[in-house]
Amino acid sequence: MTSSSITRAGLVAKHGLAASGHLERLVAWLNERGITAVFETETASLAGMRSATGTWSRDELPNHVDLIIVLGGDGTLLSMATRIARTGHDVPMLGVNFGSLGFLTETRIDELYPTLESAVAGTASYDERALLSAEAYRARELFDSRLVLNDVVFTKAALSRIIELSVSVSTGLVTKVKADGLIVASATGSTAYNLAAGGPIVHPRVDALVLTPIAPHTLTHRPVVIPGNETVEVRPLPDAGAEDIFVTYDGQTGYPLQKGDSIRIRKHERLLRLVKAPARSYFEVLREKLKWGER
Length: 295
What we know:
This protein has 295 residues and is of the alpha/beta class. It has helices at residues 20-32, 41-46, 74-87, 112-121, 193-196, 282-290, and strands at 8-13, 36-40, 55-56, 67-72, 93-97, 107-108, 126-138, 141-148, 151-156, 163-169, 172-179, 181-186, 208-214, 224-227, 232-236, 245-249, 253-256, 262-275.
C-alpha cells in the first residue's frame, strides 16, 4: 500500500473512552498529510466533532475509508473486524490499545504515530488473519449467518447442568460432547476464550481450527486442532434439551438454539489485515500478555 492510496482514514474509539484529546491530535496529524479523517458516528460525538467532515455508522464506515484506526481494546477491534468482512472491502485496521497490550490491538498509544507513519508511507507490515463463517440452520433452512474473527461458543443456560452436542466434520462424526460448553476457535481466537478454557495457543499463520470443550464431564475429552479447510457442524443431541443451549459469536451477540438446529462453521474466503506494530513479534506479545518467564 503506497502513501497515495490512503486518502481517508476512519476513526473508531471505544465507547466511554476518554480519548477526545488524542482524537483532536490525530485529526490534525492526518490533515497535515492531506488525509481526511472520517468519524464513526459515536466517536464523533465522543470527540465533540458533530460537524466533522464525515460521519458514518460502524456498519457503513468500511465503505468510505482506506484505513480504520481503532482506539480502545480488542473488543472494539472485534466489533469492526466482522463489519469490514461483511462489506467486502479490503480495508486494513490499526488497533491502538489504551492500557495493557492487546492480542489484536498491539500498538500502544505512544507508538501510534510511528506505526501510522509507516502505513501512510507504504512501508508497514501487515498481519493477515483468517475469519470464520457460521451458518445456522433450522428445519434445514438457513436462518442466520455470521462472520467472526475469534470464535463461536456453545454454552449452557444458567440453570442447566450440562449440554450435549454432536460435533462432525466432512469425514464424519468427531465426538459427542458432554460439557458446560464448546468453543470452535480460529487460530486468532486461540488466545481468547479458548485459552481461558485450557485450549492450545495456535500461531495465527497456522491454517487450523480448534475445538475445545468447556469443563468436559468426561476426563478424556481434550481440545482438538483440525485442518483449517474443514467445515465443523455442531448439533444439540436430540434428547439433550436444545433450549438450554446458547450460541455466542465473538462473545458479542448470540441466541438460544432449538431442537434440530445445527451450526456449520468454516473458514471464510476473506482475510482481515492488521497493521503490525514496528519491531514487535507475535511471541513478544505472548510473553508480555502471559507473563512467560516471570516468577
